[in-house]
Design a protein that fits this description.
The chain is 50% helix and 10% strand. It has 203 residues and is an alpha+beta fold.
Length: 203
């Protein structure tokens, strides 16, 4: 059985969603954020990075949400929620699996830290226009690419949708999807899935 070390309001929400989609057996060990909104130091006893999510699978202890999704799909996916390597959709699957966390989420996180007031006394100053411009550029590109597509990687739901939808939900919460055409309907379809709703209840 997989163990997920889960921090409230964190990227581990997407791991619960993936586990629900795959109907895998798992248990959740819950942690609360400290007054500064950081993970508690107890999480460093599980993994030295002390960040969420972390999973344990036998002797394997793994952090980093993108790596965890990739690991679960290869180790426990049994061919579900991912195109085969020889399929034309596989390249899109790999791209969206990594773009969401590797390229989009850093901009969203910087925006949160610099403009939300979550860090007292921070003033984005001259960084603000560049930050907003780059974030808008990324989201407009994603919006255009998703035109006419039901799912990120191809004709079926995949783990890439779990990664992308989480980032877009984060963006929507910061009002960054207001001037897009395709991303809000896409996000509504993803968050209407039964596995997503079960994951939200558990997270």
């Amino acid at each position: 059985m997989l163990t997920l070390y889960h921090l409230r309001n964190s990227r581990s929400d997407r791991i619960i969603w993936l586990l629900e989609e795959l109907a895998l057996d798992y248990e959740i060990v819950r942690y609360e954020r400290d007054p500064t909104f950081r993970a508690p130091p107890e999480m460093r006893e599980i993994h030295e990075l002390g960040k969420s999510p972390i999973i344990r699978d036998g002797d394997v202890v793994l952090a980093e949400s993108g790596a965890i999704v990739d690991y679960i799909m290869v180790r426990h996916g049994a061919g579900r929620l991912a195109p085969r390597h020889g399929d034309p959709e596989w390249a899109r699957y790999v791209f969206w699996l990594h773009f969401a966390e590797g390229s989009l989420m850093p901009w969203l996180t910087i925006d949160l830290l610099l403009t939300s007031g979550i860090v007292p006394g921070v003033d984005p100053g001259p960084l603000a226009p560049m930050l907003q411009q780059e974030l808008a550029r990324y989201l407009h590109w994603v919006d255009a690419d998703m035109a006419g597509r039901a799912f990120a990687a191809g004709s079926d739901f995949s783990a890439a949708d779990v990664m992308l939808a989480y980032a877009l939900e984060f963006a929507k919460g910061r009002n960054h999807l207001a001037d897009t055409e395709n991303l809000v309907p896409y996000l509504e379809r993803m968050t209407a899935r039964e596995a997503y709703r079960r994951a939200k209840q558990k997270s």
